Amino acid sequence: MAEHRSMQRAALLDAARSLLSEGGTEALTFPALAERTGLARSSVYEYFRSRAAVVEELCEVDFPVWAAEVETAMERATSGEGKVEAYVRQQLALVGDRRHRAVVAISASELDAGAREKIRAAHGGLVTLIVEALGELGHAQPRLAAMLVQGVVDAAVRRIELGAAEDPTVITEAAVAMALRGVRG
């Protein structure tokens, strides 16, 4: 029974990712989740009390995976600048990932305070990854610089997600160049 519930919950989360990446937060409804998973609409409420609860769980499940991917990319770098570059490049590489598109859709929407806090905390964990690299580079205020680098990444993500006129590779290269110039100081 527990295994069945776990599988159903995972199916609901997978359906939520698909709905969010296909149609944004407007597409994430309990009737749509029920249809995608073959569950009765009332059954969806047995797993999640609200759309915000779905969002919170997606953040709890997906953000650590992305952070691990970013961290792994940074660990392969041999210099502080290489770590900053890997930090930016890996996050922008994840833009095409369905999990990432779902969270971008989520963060652009109206969420309750709990869901917003989960997203903020997860992003804070990402920023923490780069603070040490900025310290290695001798940056006087590595936490501030990390927040600003993340701002460059966030702007590039939005540009890519909007389907900007520029190719995503051009956006990535510009973001990397801006981040590296900014941390060199």
Describe the structure.
It is a single chain. With 185 residues, the protein is an all-alpha fold. It contains nine helices and no strands. The chain has helices at residues 2-23, 30-37, 41-47, 51-76, 80-93, 98-107, 113-136, 142-161, 168-184. Helix 2 crosses helix 3 (41-47). The longest helix is centred in the middle third of the chain and has 26 residues, at 51-76.
Give the CA-based shape.
elongated
Per DSSP E runs of 2 or more residues, the count of β-strands stands at 0
The helix/strand order is HHHHHHHHH
Structural class: mainly alpha
- Rg calculated over all Cα atoms: 18 Å
Beta content? under 5%
Helix content: over 70%
Mean of residue pLDDT values: 85
Termini, distance in Å?
57 Å
Which features characterize this protein?
elongated, 185 residues, single chain, mainly alpha, 9 helices
Short description:
The chain is built from 9 helices and no strands. It is 80% helix and 0% strand.
